[in-house]
Amino acid sequence: MSTTIEGTYYNGKIELSETPNDICEGTRVIVTFLSPGSIDLRERGIDETQAADLRARFSTFVEDWESPEMSVYDNYDEEKAKLQTR
Q1: Domain of 46, in residue numbers
Q2: pTM
Q3: Dihedral sign of CA atoms 40, 36, 20, 25 in order
């Protein structure tokens, strides 16, 4: 059995984006580090039609997301990690 859950690496530990279901404590894992921006949607069960639908629905946020005020979130994970180490 294989279960895929996204996570983020901080200070030598992986922080999962969600809690896995039906996985016992102590289960072995394999971690693959992704280059920024390179998520394979097919690996996540999202085909081209679904991806197009997602892009269309997210397009309503583009103007707000690309505004200069949103640049504060460009390095959010990195800045959050710095705060946690203080």
Answers
A1: 7-84
A2: 0.38
A3: positive
